[in-house]
Design a protein that fits this description.
By secondary structure, the protein is an alpha+beta fold. Helices cover 21% and strands 21% of the residues. Keywords: Disulfide bond.
Length: 283
């Protein structure tokens, strides 16, 4: 939430007002489109990877979850939890000939995918109405898995995060296959899902620019420790980092001691020299 607050404070709404969907900017969250397990592009003619035969109200699993596709006994499709178990229909592909075979063992979708790839070609792809009829016949009145699935939300850089900041009613999954996320800065940056091919403002991020700072520190050595002992120096660094973290500094801050010309980090203060130096400064 701290990041969202920072973005909201940085957003210049005056420069984002250019359309009916103003005050919105893309962030790096998106949901992959539905894809077939059999990914060989030569298997599909133009438009065949987009063939769908969803049942009424389907798909209905939100984009927060990975979803896999099953077929009802009537041949229509539904999306469901990929780790539920049902019968898979595998495809045997030999040149231009494709046959469909039901496996009489209930499996999760990932198990079904692995089984079909090991024993046949892959989970069934359905490219047209004719093949849908063949899969329905192979299913013999059972609910079955076919090879269509969709990943859950993920970040553009591949990172994972459990944080979400969806606007009420979002995501609504009404944007076709590929869906991306925009922050609405007129509502504190709350997230909405939109078709990815829309044009709008966007927010980039890059690596944090590092800066090196040298500081001179002074310790009272009441216990007469050897401050140049590596173990003692390491313990002091840990204490310093804890104090800096307590003051709100970034956890990524790196501390190290700098050795002087004689190879030592610490030198005992010469009080007489310091007294003479202070007198000269007063004069």
């Amino acid at each position: 939430m701290e990041v969202m607050n920072n973005l909201t404070n940085m957003a210049d709404l005056d420069n984002m007002f250019y359309s009916n969907n103003s005050y919105r900017a893309w962030i790096g969250l998106n949901a992959d489109s539905w894809t077939w397990s059999l990914s060989n592009t030569s298997f599909y003619k133009p438009g065949e990877t987009e063939f769908r035969l969803w049942g009424d109200g389907e798909p209905n699993i939100g984009y927060n979850d990975k979803a896999c596709t099953g077929m009802y006994p009537n041949g229509l499709w539904y999306d469901y939890d990929c780790y539920s178990k049902t019968y898979p229909v595998c495809a045997d592909v030999k040149g231009s000939d494709v046959t469909f075979v039901i496996v009489p063992t209930r499996m999760t979708w990932p198990e079904a995918q692995g089984y079909c790839r090991d024993h046949r070609t892959d989970l069934a792809s359905v490219r047209n109405m004719t093949e849908n009829q063949k899969v329905q016949e192979a299913a013999r009145g059972n609910y079955v898995w076919i090879g269509l699935s969709r990943d859950s939300w993920k970040w553009s850089d591949g990172s994972n995060s459990s944080f979400s900041f969806w606007k009420k009613g979002q995501p609504d999954n009404n944007n076709g296959n590929k869906t991306c996320v925009a922050a609405d800065f007129s509502q504190s940056g709350a997230w909405e899902d939109w078709p990815c091919d829309m044009e709008r403002a966007f927010i980039c991020y890059g690596p944090v620019v590092s800066k090196k700072v040298m500081m001179k520190v002074k310790f009272e050595n009441k216990k007469n420790l050897d401050l140049n002992d590596p173990a003692v120096m390491e313990a002091m660094l840990k204490q310093l980092k804890q104090k800096l973290r307590a003051q709100g500094l970034d956890d990524n801050i790196k501390l190290s001691w700098r050795k002087q010309a004689d190879g030592k980090v610490f030198h005992k203060e010469d009080k007489k020299t310091n007294k003479r130096r202070r007198k000269r400064e007063e004069l």
